[in-house]
Amino acid sequence: MTTETAKAIEVAEPYDEHNDDGERAERGDRTIRRFTIHHDGVTIPVSRGGQGRPLVLCPGLSSTQAHLRELTELLRRDHDVVTFDLRGHGLASAADRYSFEDFLNDLAAVMAELGNLGLPTAPMLVGYSLGADLAVHYACEHPDTVAGLVLIDGANPVPEPFITEAVLPAFRAMCEDLATQQEAERGTARQVLLSAQEILDLNLEIDVIRSEILDRYRNIDRPVSMIMSTSMAGDSSEGPAPRFNQNWRAGVERLVREHPHIAASWLDADHQLVFTHAPQIAQILLDAPGPAGRAIS
């Protein structure tokens, strides 16, 4: 990773009574500090607010700080929460490249800047979807900089790849539909600048990453918890959904067999659980023993 500048201009502001979508914010929101990190030719916007133990929330592919607002507000009641946008997402700038390694460098740049801020303790690293995979790879390479991991519907060592030749045309069409839908959010805090091909290429790369991720877990000596969806591909009994869901559960079962200390919680939801079940996710985090949850006396 190359960090061009990390002067991170910080702006402290009282949290507005309305969020970016015009909805009322939760009571108890405190001052939000915003700063930007410039590295590798991109600008990464970072927000920090709340009180309690430090926590970094890493978004996934096609999700932004604005998408994760409900979960962020809930977590800020009990944690000092840092959120950010990955390159090409939200208020971050576009980039020439969108690979797993590039996104990992974005996370590393944020964590390096937090190290410069002198946090009282190492932060808990919480990742959603692709963000969970980034969290595992980052923690494997920098174990002393995190207190533990909470992985939300990602970083799953599934025994079979999701995108096979048989389903590739359907995946390509899905990515094209997604890119078309995202056109409507251009210029907003929810925008995603990646093309359909870039989204498809990343999903193919993630399949490869997850086929090798068990080795990463072996090198992590921090507490790890998983919050997973029971029907990540939806609850249809037709098409590829049943196979996808079975593959998803088999990956978690495989991981827990090899690493019995990893705790797995299941929510009756699909892969959108971080948006549909934010209160439940926040409560699981709060109730977790050790660094993620309430302080232990």
Can you put this structure into words, describing what you see?
There is one protein chain. The longest helix is centred in the middle third of the chain and has 18 residues. A nine-stranded mixed sheet has the order 1-2-3-5-4-6-7-8-9, with helices on both faces. It has nine helices and nine strands. It has a single domain, classed as 3-Layer(aba) Sandwich (Rossmann fold), CATH 3.40.50.1820. By secondary structure, it is an alpha/beta fold. The N and C termini lie far apart (39 Å). The radius of gyration is 18 Å and the shape is globular. Keywords: Hydrolase. One of its GO terms (molecular function) is hydrolase activity.
Topology:
Blueprint: E1 10-13, E2 32-39, E3 42-50, E4 53-58, H1 69-75, E5 79-84, H2 100-117, E6 124-128, H3 130-141, E7 148-152, H4 168-183, H5 196-211, H6 214-218, E8 224-229, H7 241-258, E9 263-267, H8 273-276, H9 278-287
Parallel strand pairs: 4-5, 4-6, 6-7, 7-8, 8-9
Antiparallel strand pairs: 1-2, 2-3, 3-5
Keywords summarizing the entry:
nine-stranded mixed β-sheet; 297 residues; globular; disordered N terminus; alpha/beta; single chain; Rossmann fold
Largest sheet report = 9 strands, mixed
Number of strands: 9
Structural class: alpha/beta
Terminal residue distance: 39 Å
Short overview:
The protein is an alpha/beta fold. It has helices at residues 69-75, 100-117, 130-141, 168-183, 196-211, 214-218, 241-258, 273-276, 278-287; strands spanning 10-13, 32-39, 42-50, 53-58, 79-84, 124-128, 148-152, 224-229, 263-267. The protein has a single domain, classed as 3-Layer(aba) Sandwich (Rossmann fold).
